[in-house]
Amino acid sequence: MPADPKLKLTPSERRASVALAGLFACRMLGLFLLLPVFAVAARGLPGGDDPARVGLALGMYGLTQAVMQIPFGLASDRWGRRPVVIAGLLLFIVGSVVCARADDVFWITVGRAIQGAGAISAAVTAWLADATRDEVRTRAMAMVGGSIGLSFAVSLVAAPLLVGAWGLPGLFWTIACLGLASLAVASWVVPVVPRGDARSMQADRPAEVLLHPDLLRLNFGVFVLHFVQVSLFVVAPALLAHAGGLDARELWKVYLPIILVSFVLMVPAVFLAETRRAHRGALLAAVAGLVAVCGLLPLAVDGFYGLVLGLTGFFVAFNVLEALQPSLVSRVAPQTYKGLALGFYNTAQAAGLFVGGAVGGWLAAHAGAPGVFLTAAGLAAVWLVVGWGMRPLK
Hints:
Elements: H1 11-32, H2 38-41, H3 51-79, H4 81-101, H5 105-117, H6 121-131, H7 134-189, H8 206-211, H9 213-244, H10 252-275, H11 279-296, H12 304-332, H13 338-388
């Protein structure tokens, strides 16, 4: 049968999707570059030998992100996506420069707070939702999700090389340059997308967005997803290094193929969800996969290939959910409050990152890696039950 033209991206949709995925990739690469090296590189700075201060410097970004996602999302509904995204990227660049010029961990913490204050994830996702039709939106969201996964893989390879060549200040200057690249894309590459009249926003109330049952399910889901992601990576690197006899600097050789393979396996799942309008079923299947993977990982703590297989399964489910969930938020939310709905969604995401790291670290210290994996499986099982009540899309 001939392909349905409704399931193909138009040239305008393709341009917007590629441009916004590139914007997201540059900005997320700028964030990910710090994670593999900061705890070690900061030791040469005053305060860098205090794990609590180093952790605060890393976590401060997530805290200000959580605070600012909703205001930025709502602002993008009122004044447009482009000006809000540009304002957020300017804050990100300023924060990166503050970090690059810092001579102690305190000022890096200040710079990280400024970086996080430019909380544009909701506005960018809403921009992508504006630019795409329902029939192809999940595919467009998958491009963004894939770009984030690839950015993470690149950061694992590039960060040690950049710090080795230019030190921590050079890494932050690189991050600032990535922010400038994102700013250029937002200013001149992403096409203009018509939006509804902001005056019509009076038709819906913000409280209806916050209390909408299906949006609450999706917000809980993204909290769980990123809780599981961070808590797993509290323990997974050490397990992989021990089981595979690898140095920490060699772990990128494991992460990169895992992420690439999982992305390839994710594409058919997203395509089937779109063509058969089976978004709810695909979401529940991916969550069930998450439960199974996390539940089986305790059996693989001493086996290198079992860990690799388990992490590959995790990233397949993770990438599918990263594509499906924001697409579903943009469809379920009232037309005039997409940005606000995605602001709530991204706030829940940032909270999951913060809580997953804190609780995952505590569990690793008191219950070991199996305790982390089983807690993740239990929380994902709760998500599966909660998500079962979600209504199919019309």
